[in-house]
């Protein structure tokens, strides 16, 4: 895979430098190594602050979601690697506005370990921290083991909803409740068509035949649930939607939001072709789509493929979803 | 190249169906074949209406720029193929709010021919139409032949600035003047690392070695100015910026906007690495960057590569650039 980079070892540093040069009106670095980024106007006094973090290589995840109406700070790791607990603590200190901090991040071993450690350190410093871990990837563990699942693109909804709640002046328990509710109400299923290549490794993370696809593959190349011949867009959409609805039954008359997420190399045109079928399938079941999102929300460098996330809405979540936000990567009025 | 599609012949139709299902609050189709899309609230009475059009496969170009503060309508062609004059006329009729219509599109043979024909038909119907053709691709013709150059990602600026002017209540001549000024002030240079594959063709549009890149290649695979070994991000940035500044000298103390555009498969991380160097190079020359844009603005399906556009700003253009807009693909507050 050809890459437009300099020394592979410097990819994350240079990406962060570019990002800060481009978006200094919205983002501020609070460490010399730029691994802790916060809203330019941090801390927002009296508001529950929300932090996330994770490995690089997934833009706009994670650092693309820092901004007004969204997250307060992010701890940035190396390529596909967890940031350190110390970076998370630095983020936490910089964003704490006196009302506590909520950590929302994906369920990966390194991230869990480091965020837990950061939580303990923050606690010793008198900053109350609560945690909600995203576990939306249906394919990563069978039903009954939801808490062991990985977090993928559906994490966007946890961010959005919790952040909108924090903006209402709600306290930490209430913001956490919304993040947990969002987590309980969202499921994601993905399909990978090609591998990505870590810049410092220089060869594909995994091999996949030129006519093959893998359903349920993780965004770091974690094995999925089924590998088989490449299917049509409609067949893929059906498979993804069915897996989600088997895992989280949604009754006719319900309202949902849908996120069709590109993994990196898949053109927007194809995401819309998949959305078309997802819409049709849900409509057949009497499920109404409110505020769909289509684009790249959580990528895996130049991996080809996509995921579908479905968020079951009630009035409370719908109202929060509709609130505006503004980040360097996406703005909603 | 693997694609998430159904029948290759139906890619454009199904993409448009998905798009309209997702964004019916912002977009309206005025033809049964969905090839003419306009703002949901069209026509806006008393405002100069702006239309564009071109082949499919370049999302968010062209149809992603229809919305408030942006374009009024778009004529959608087949993959990499011009829409018909009839489709353009249908767009024109649907968006005309009594103050005339401005066509802004890229300089490609089929588009020029069909838009000229549409212009004549509109004229016979009493709709005054003016045209500004984007010719920002430095690589496509040498200096002195600017009017024969292709239009690529820099077209975004023509749309944005003309639309912001139209929103002020300016008349058609004034809106056209701004589009022409934007066109005179913007240059783009791109680099391609891989080909894309047209769905109905099924094989790459062109061949390029696994360690090669082509500077100046067009977004349909038109030959560039130089093919050579893949260079570093910094070397590529230097080459693109130098070509632009040789063509359009910019004096120290000037203000510009910069657009780093991904062609489809190139990760956002790499675009930021390039932006970092572009910023550094311009800063060295005493050129200040105002409101940079980094992301996918004009793609070529799953082509890997990117382009850099530089727009020379004066106070008038800067003020127009800062105005908000809202489309299904991008929102600016």
TrEMBL record, chains A, B:
<dbReference type="GO" id="GO:0004371">
    <property type="term" value="F:glycerone kinase activity"/>
</dbReference>
<protein>
    <submittedName>
        <fullName>Dihydroxyacetone kinase subunit DhaK</fullName>
        <ecNumber>2.7.1.121</ecNumber>
    </submittedName>
</protein>
<dbReference type="GO" id="GO:0047324">
    <property type="term" value="F:phosphoenolpyruvate-glycerone phosphotransferase activity"/>
</dbReference>
<feature type="domain" description="DhaK">
    <location>
        <begin position="7"/>
        <end position="330"/>
    </location>
</feature>
<keyword id="KW-0067">ATP-binding</keyword>
<keyword id="KW-0418">Kinase</keyword>
<dbReference type="GO" id="GO:0005829">
    <property type="term" value="C:cytosol"/>
</dbReference>
<dbReference type="Pfam" id="PF02733">
    <property type="entry name" value="Dak1"/>
</dbReference>
<dbReference type="GO" id="GO:0005524">
    <property type="term" value="F:ATP binding"/>
</dbReference>
<keyword id="KW-0808">Transferase</keyword>
<dbReference type="GO" id="GO:0019563">
    <property type="term" value="P:glycerol catabolic process"/>
</dbReference>
<dbReference type="InterPro" id="IPR004006">
    <property type="entry name" value="DhaK_dom"/>
</dbReference>
<dbReference type="InterPro" id="IPR050861">
    <property type="entry name" value="Dihydroxyacetone_Kinase"/>
</dbReference>
<keyword id="KW-0547">Nucleotide-binding</keyword>
